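Researcher: Let's continue the batch. This sequence belongs to Stage 0 sporulation protein A homolog, and it's 234 residues. Same format as the previous ones, please.
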Amino acid sequence: MEKNCRIAVCDDAPEDIQYVKAMTQRWGQSRQIAVQIETFPSAESFLFQYAEDKSFDILLLDIEMAAMDGVTMARQVRRDNETVQIIFITGYSDYIAEGYEVEALHYLMKPVHEEKLFQVLDRAMQKLEKDARCLNLELSGEMVRIPLYTIRYLDVYKNYVTIHAREDYTVKRTLGAFEEELDSGFFRAGRSMIVNLKYIRRVTKKEVYLSDGTVLPLPRGVYEALNRAIINGG
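Model: Same format as before. Here are the structure tokens for Stage 0 sporulation protein A homolog:
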């Protein structure tokens, strides 16, 4: 099945837009990906369309633009979109530190080299595919899809499992059944808990501290294996 990818190129230099667009089209052809590319001459023009349609997968943003710069634009996008892949294009290395807060995938220095752009777009697609993975739950007669990257942890009480994501969902099911549906980014900590490794900030012999402030009890004998899983990156 052919993959699809919607990409925005935003730059106030028309020649740079055409240069990056042509390379991105070649990348799509070489990877057998149906690429839809839209171009924007300013951050403002992109945000105007984005307000109505947020279905972009990848943003290729020039940092230095006349009115609003690319980092400011990316901050606005990140407020309600965690999965879009942001790639900055810049003529100056001074700006690189500014992009960490918007979780930029990469910085490409002008002039952009095709081989480097292809590598970064490949990484963006891998991340998009990973972020698209979901748990499917049937709750009150309707199907609920929970993206795996939003799940902080799952725990058991009696015969019920609660999935702690953007909301909490409780279902009558075993933890083992969920474990089979999750990927290597999750760690089974004893009989009653599975935790998403990317949310862990600190581990002691008795507790796991998550980035949202949650503190979870760590069963005896699990500390070493959990540390190994964190070091291996899931």
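Researcher: Any comment?
Model: The two ends are 28 Å apart (CA to CA).
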